[in-house]
Sequence to fold (594 residues):
Amino acid sequence: MLNIIKDFWFLFGRLFPFPTKPGLRQVGSPDKNSPVLITANFELTVRQVINTLNKDGINAWLLVANTRGINVWCAAGGDNFSTDTVISALKSSKIEEMVDHKRLILPQLCASGVNIHSLKKRSGWQGRFGPVDIKHLAAWLQSGRPNPPAEHRRVLFPFKNRLVMGTNLGVNTLLFAILPLLLASYWLPGFWWKSLLLIFAAAILNCLLVFKLPGKPGLQKGLALGGIAAAIFTVIAVSALHLPFINLSGWLIWIIVIGAYLGYDTPSWSPLWRTDMKELLLGERNTEVSVSPEKCIGCGLCQNVCPAGVFGRDLLSGKSTALHLERCQACGACVENCPAAAIETNFEGGICSCPTCQILNKLK
Amino acid sequence: MSTLVYMKILELSPASYDRWMRFLTLGRVNHIKKEIAANWINPGDNVLEIGCGTGSLAALMTKRGARVTAVDISAKMLAEAQKKVPAADFHHLTALEIDQFPQDKFSRIVATLSFSELTIAELDMVLSLSANLLKPGGLLIVADEVRATKLWQRFLAVLMRWPLAIITFLITQQTTHVIKNFEARLTAAEKFELIQRHEYLLGTMALFIGRRSDKVSSGAAAKTGGGVPC
Ligand code: SF4
Ligand code: SF4
Fold:
């Protein structure tokens, strides 16, 4: 029951940290040779990891790092899941007394915060990045391969996740908008609750349509969303509620504004698109990633850590090249982990681009 | 006055760190740092500072004639600190990695506002590492946010903590914590004796002075702290 309440909360409040106790946990009955995993102390993450491992019958040591209750990716982007965090978790748990090896499996999405080379140097532990989603861990461990298959190293955005994004986007918009809306309701009675309904309806519509909407992610898709929402609103209002069309014009403009805002903010909540003011407003892509062939030693780590499948391998030289720049989310994982400092970008890596982190960066 | 709710922003912004700290603690932090340097540090002391931030205390202690070694996990802060105090020796290390310094090396170990950032298991471990690094009779000097002991103070603290905590939560998604039962943790396993405790800001901040207990055998690698797995 408690878990159901928590899950309900996560539907709306995922942007808030939800810490659970850090420290070492046993999953199943691990022994001296069992794998050691690490994850963030976000309640939902820890519960999902333990449930999945139990279901798949895996015995493991699970280190819950103190990321201040923030999920893996956000924590890594915001300096809360860093090499230091991992070292502190390893040392304070005394895991070294529990196992006969020093191999640590890290969630791939912490790669923008954790540098496995300096981890090795400072702690002696050999880090490896597992799959993005814990449900693919068992298959990877059983395969005995050094890395999870490429399709399990990509971040996807299925409908279920889009829905969670939609509700959270709605709630976040409300946080910003509620005061002005209430104020406006002084002159326009009922404006605030009607706007709330519209915001949520548009956010849900956005989840359904975001890939189908024309235009670039950001303002362009937002205007399209607003247009479609306004059209649906008109049809319902005129045909079902028999409102005269002439009275609707103000609302139609308002709906387009709401749609535009939601569209503009969508990339911040998606794991697929970068949040860059200019990019979102003008629709121009200005993300640059390049690999210097002279420096690259062909270790392939950038290909393993990139959640967007940006890198490919040059068959002749064995070195990496940045092939699909349009997919890059500027997470900085490649830069953080390249052992040869061979990757150049035109953005500062490791700085998350969601609204909250952006505000934080502005305050710096 | 739990004021240190902006800790996280501060950690990331070396330039404004000192200014903010002064503001958030109503100037107390500077006062405590001056007090530490003046009353507890002697010329010639070998000091380890855990979580040095931008080095304002390191500067005071160096001026007093101590040799300062300091660790912090923020590269930006360390760069700032190195500029401020060229004579001190700065390392990018977590508090748990101080065991790479030689045992019995330091006569003072100092931590201001950094122990409250640790988990309980981490804190216990850092305390026991510190006991090993201190010379016999060496002092551990800790200033941090604590839970007020008197009920009315606690009530006031909660009243003041909440509004700040909510604002911080919204902006930074961070919370800061107080160290609970620090005295008990400090004296557990007979590693330290508490020799002084001062309170500030209605009992919400405290300065603890612990002396390494004679029961810690010099050089013995008693490297175990608290924290039971699972
Ligand atoms: S760019 Fe860096 S991480 Fe990628 S293969 Fe080359 S050396 Fe390795
Ligand atoms: S190429 Fe872009 S998305 Fe891929 S790891 Fe580097 S910064 Fe992240």
